[in-house]
Write a structure and sequence with these properties.
The protein is built from 4 helices and 5 strands, in the order E-H-E-E-H-E-E-H-H. Helices cover 53% and strands 24% of the residues. It is of the alpha+beta class. The model is unreliable at 163-168 (pLDDT under 50).
Length: 168
C-alpha cells in the first residue's frame, strides 16, 4: 500500500475590517482557494489540487487557516493564493487576501511554527503598548505561551526516557 503525502499551508486571512473574519466559514475559504487555482492554472490545476484539498483548520477570530493538499501539487495552490481577493459568504463579499506563513509536511510542524509566530507577534505588541495594563496582559500571554511550550518539551523528554527504560 502506498502512503500519500500531503503538504499543509498555514495562512493568515488579512482583511481591512477584522469583524468580517467572524463571518467566514470553511466552505467559503475552500471555494475561494479552488476558484483562484482555476483562474490561474485552469482545469488542469483545479483537478490536481482538488484531489485531496481540504481546509483542516479555521480560526475565525485570528484569521488563521490550515489548508491541506497533495505534496505533488502544493505549489499550484501556493502560487494561486495571492490571487484570492475576496471571500464570499451568504451572498456577501468580504475583501481580503491570504498571507502564507508556513508550508509544512505535518500539522504538528505547522502548530509549532504558529506558536513561535504568535509569540513574536505578542512581543511586537509588547513594544507598542501605551498603558501599563496592556503591557501586563501581554506579558502574561507571552509567559503562558512559554510555560506551555516548556511543559510539552518536558513531557516529550519524559516519554523518551520511559521508552529508553523499557528497552534496557
Amino acid at each position: 500500500m502506498v502512503r500519500l503525502k500531503h503538504r499543509y499551508l498555514l495562512c493568515e486571512i488579512v482583511s481591512e475590517d477584522p469583524r468580517c473574519r467572524q463571518c467566514i466559514d470553511e466552505r467559503a475559504v475552500g471555494a475561494a482557494a479552488k476558484d483562484a487555482v482555476a483562474r490561474t492554472h485552469g482545469d488542469y490545476g483545479l483537478a490536481c489540487c482538488s484531489i485531496a484539498f481540504t481546509v483542516k483548520y479555521l480560526n475565525a477570530y485570528t484569521g488563521i487557516v490550515l489548508l491541506r493538499c497533495r505534496k505533488d501539487f502544493y505549489r499550484l495552490l501556493w502560487s494561486a493564493l495571492p490571487f484570492v481577493t475576496y471571500l464570499e459568504n451568504r451572498n456577501q463579499r468580504y475583501s481580503c487576501f491570504f498571507n502564507t506563513l508556513h508550508v509544512g509536511g505535518t500539522i504538528r510542524t505547522c502548530q509549532k511554527f504558529l506558536v513561535q509566530y504568535n509569540r513574536k507577534q505578542l512581543l511586537l505588541l509588547l513594544h507598542n503598548c501605551t498603558s501599563e495594563e496592556e503591557r501586563q496582559s501581554i506579558q502574561k500571554s507571552v509567559l503562558s505561551c512559554c510555560l506551555k511550550e516548556m511543559e510539552e518539551e518536558q513531557s516529550q523528554s519524559g516519554d523518551e526516557e520511559d521508552d529508553c527504560a523499557e528497552t534496557d
